Amino acid sequence: MVGARLVNGTWEQDNSFRGMLPWDFLYVEAENWVYPGALAHEYYMWDRNGRNGPNPTKARGWAFWALRGMPQTIQQCKELLKIVANSSTEQLERFEAWLILHHFMLVSQSFAPSQHDRAMTWAAEHLPRMHRPGRWQIFTYVPMDPNAFGPINPHTPVGTLNIRLATPDPSLGLVIDPWAQYILHCGCPGMLNEFYGIIFDQSFHVLRRSVWGYLLGRAIAPSSTRLRDARTVVTRKFAYLAAVPTAYIEAVAERERLNGPGYLLPTLVQQITITRIRVSQTLSPNFGQADIMNCLLANRIPVEWLTHAYPYGVQYLWQHLASNDWYHDQY
Q1: Which of 327, 297, 309 is nearest to 241 (CA)?
Q2: Cα R_g (the chain), whole angstroms
Q3: In the chain, where do the E strands start and end?
Q4: Please, are residues 204 and 188 in contact by the beta-carbon 8 Å criterion?
Q5: Domain boundaries in the chain?
Q6: CA–CA gap between residue 218 and residue 201 (Å, rounded)
Q7: What pTM was computed for the model?
């Protein structure tokens, strides 16, 4: 079983599903309730305004078959599926029922079969054939606050829904949290934008170590957009080194053997100026990891900074090279 939660003295199925619910769901931990799509927004406004009037969930017919917002038995799944397939049912009801079943299926497929209950086993086997009732991108069905991740860009026209979070200031080039918010805003699950090497889930939990690796690689790469190819080469080579940092550890040990300890920067430092790799280097056919290590050594980057980026390097390799046997043999 995926877990249980004690609610009002009674043990229930844990509907948080270990943080795997996506952004178009609202999970209320105190109630163990999951609110999908438009209902998530309605419940949020109802709760914020003092809970005046009836709970908006009572207006949903599917709520009878989805206790606390998620099905718990095979029969409840089948009843929700009937709502999805019934063309005489209100479109919003059908869409929310589909949204519940669709993500219940995705969550079920994400867990090992040994962690399934009977409903999850049935959902993983039968629901992939379920068809969506109508369009997906309908704002009234899946409302999302466009300002959810930060202040409005002052250059954005008033009233637009296309809110863009400004790129963090250059002085924050190695500060994780502002960049984590920016990456989640511009490349959240389901969007076409991709930030390779970043590890996060559908609930916007981001692994800070992966963001750190992204920032460190970005700091040593050429910055101009006109040098995109050179920047890609540096990023790729840095990711390889972050995934297998042994070579840099050995290079630092040799440097300290020849020149004595104390060459590298302290692990904790308030300010740092980093010199980027020259473009002429990246255009050389012999450019490789040795050049990346020389750049890190020239900038006196501590070993701990590189080893902290290990998850970024592994994720980058997995995203780019999972199907390439040559890289499997080399790395």
Answers
A1: 309
A2: 25
A3: 4-7, 10-13, 25-28, 33-36
A4: yes
A5: 4-129, 176-330
A6: 22
A7: 0.61
Among 10, 1, 7, CA closest to 28: 7
Residue 13, beta-bridge partner list: 4
Q: Residue 225: how many CA atoms within 13 Å on its side-chain side?
A: 0
Residue 151 pairs in a beta bridge with: none
Contact 276, 222 (CB under 8 A): yes
Q: What is the largest CA-CA distance in the chain?
A: 80
What pLDDT, in 10s, does the model give residues 236-264?
999 999 999 999 999 999 988 888 888 88
Q: Which residues contact 296 (CB under 8 A, 6 or more apart)?
A: 220, 248, 306
**Angle between the 176-186 and 208-220 helix axes, to the nearest 10 degrees?**
100
Q: Write out pLDDT tens, residues 130-176.
A: 877 765 444 444 544 444 444 444 554 444 444 456 788 888 889 99
Q: Which amino acid is at 175?
A: V
How far is 167 from 181, CA to CA, in rounded Å? 10
Q: Is 287 helix (H, G, I), strand (E, B) or coil?
A: coil
**Which residue pairs, CB below 8 angstroms and at least 24 apart, start in 28-37?**
31/7, 31/68, 32/5, 32/7, 32/68, 33/57, 33/68, 33/69, 34/68, 34/69, 34/70, 34/100, 35/69, 36/69, 36/96, 36/99, 36/100, 36/103, 37/95, 37/96, 37/99, 37/141, 37/142, 37/143
- Residue 200 and residue 149: Cα distance in Å, rounded? 15
Q: Which amino acid is at 292?
A: I
Separation of alpha carbons 307 and 240, rounded Å: 12
Taking the C-alpha atoms of residue 252 and residue 115, their distance in angstroms, rounded to an integer, is 45
Residue type, 131: H
Residue 165 CA to its chain's centroid (Å): 17
User: What values do phi and psi take at 242, rounded to 5?
Assistant: -65, -35
Task: Give pLDDT, residue 68.
Answer: 84
